[in-house]
Amino acid sequence: MKHSKKLFIALCALAMSQTAYSAPQPLDHVAVQLNDGIILESEISNMIANVTANAKKSNQTLPSAEALRTQVIERLILTRLQLQTADRIGLSIGDLQLDQTIENIAKEQKSTVAEMQQELEKDGVSFSQYREQLREEITLGEIQRIQVQRRIQVSPQEVNNLVKLISEQGLKDVEFQIGHILIEIPSNPSSEQLESSSKRAEIVLKRLDEGEDFRSTAIASSSGPKALEGGIWDFMNINEMPTLFAEVISGAKKGDIFGPIKSGSGFHIIKVMDTRGLQTQEIDEVKSRHILLKPSPILSDDRAQAMLANFLKDIRSGDAEFGKLARQYSEDPGSATKGGELGWAEPSLYVPEFSQTLASLTPGQISEPFRTTHGWHIVQLEERRKTDATDKFNSNRAYQLIFRRKFNEELQNWLDEMRSDAYIEIFEPENLRG
Predict the structure, then answer these.
(1) Rounded to whole angstroms, how far apart are CA atoms 43 and 14?
(2) What is the pLDDT of residue 354?
(3) Nearest Cα to Cα of residue 96 among 335, 373, 398, 384
């Protein structure tokens, strides 16, 4: 794929013109060209500073400056590719949606937005900086959900098999914290490339066996999704972790190392960093229903919000029924015919704004109109319950575990595909300075 370098040339010309008419001063410069976009040296420097500061707080050793820079560039590339995809499909998080999310976060923390702002500023973080970082995080979550969810199919047979397995064996009562290092291989690798990656994996494994710190080794060597976090995944039950992990760690104990294990993406090294008893014995679930209106050239944002406000007024006055309005107006094809009913689900499966709104409601309460990336909603929380994950394992929970496992696997596949299709040129610092 070939892309124009006009933007890069224009920036260089601008920098040259500035030096011609002003005293010499340090200038930011392009470090990476990525399709038609760029990554600036200042972005790399800022992330390196943040990673270094976090490592100091946790007494974590870091690899060489060169290795750390490589990992930071890789993380920025993947982040920017996702944001470019979001731009391409018109996904944007508006200020109203962002404000609602911040208000919900404040409520969850039993605080106010003003108090949150004061705490952030005490830590040296400007509120505007926090807002933009949160906007980016929401955008990344949404583009991943949109692009990856449609790649996932969970068959009734898979659900039934897991329910049967759980009923026979019980939900495994151990959660594992997994360390993961991926030595990547290119698409359609030659025999020489395969051999080179295999040798690198063996070298990394040997260093780990000799006692080298796993986290710093992962930051220096891994191409996996958690590389900058030292390769560490959060605690997971064996039924929800990626299949590759689950196949090798069943019955493993803390400190065990497995690998190299070859897959289509490369050679994997897996370490059991820690184990603990299953923490999620009971799972909070909600039963809810909603009405969704999607803004369009015909239906503006303001009009959609106003329509839902009128629906809410009519429901509260008794002049209309929620279910009938949902069947007539809701644009969610999965729930509209059922009167907007979403059934029982873990709130975390919904988009953040939807989940946070449900968290603020009491049973029977209907929300004010609110915005998500899907459109404008009103939602009614019908009931809450706690489900025993060990003794009363059900089909819905089985589906969620399978979905999470497949989501993690497909997310990495999507990122790999996106990266391989992109035009990427990294400019070495010494070349830029020269």
Answers:
(1) 19
(2) 93
(3) 373
Half-sphere exposure of 372 (CA within 13 A, CB side): 23
Angle at 431 between CA 429 and CA 434, to 5 degrees: 110
* CB burial of residue 159 (10 Å; 0-12, 13-18, 19+): buried
| 59 conformational bin, left if phi > 0, alpha if psi -120 to 50, beta if neither | left
DSSP secondary structure of 65-110: HHHHHHHHHHHHHHHHHHHHHHHHTT----HHHHHHHHHHHHHHTT
What DSSP assignment string belongs to 123-166?
TT--HHHHHHHHHHHHHHHHHHHHHHHTT----HHHHHHHHHHH
Residue 392 DSSP label:
S
List beta partners, residue 38: 33
CA angle 413/139/243 to nearest 5° reads 30
Helix intervals (H) in 150-297: 156-169, 191-209, 214-221, 243-249
pLDDT digits (tens, 9 = 90+) for 334-378: 899 999 999 998 888 888 889 989 999 999 999 999 998 889 999
3-state DSSP call for residue 236?
Answer: strand
CB 314 within 8 A of CB 320: yes
Q: Which two tokens stand for residue 336?
A: 């509209």
Using alpha carbons, select from 184, 207, 342 the residue that is nearest to residue 271: 207
Nearest to 226 by CA among 87, 415, 65: 415
The reported pTM is 0.69
> Which among 428, 433, 434, 422 has a CA at the least distance from the CA of 79?
422
* CA dist list (Å): 379 to 114, 295, 326, 363: 27, 17, 10, 11
The tokens of 403 are what? 């979905």
pLDDT tens per residue across span 184-241: 888 788 889 899 999 999 999 999 999 999 999 999 999 888 999 999 998 888 878 8
CA 248-254-259 angle, to 5 degrees, is 35
Are 283 and 346 in contact, with CB atoms under 8 Å apart? yes
CB atoms within 10 A of CB 288: 26
CB atoms within 10 A of CB 419: 14
Q: Closest Cα to residue 377, out of 330, 424, 338, 412?
A: 330
φ/ψ (deg, to 5) at 266: 150, -155
Cβ pair 270, 256 in contact under 8 A: no
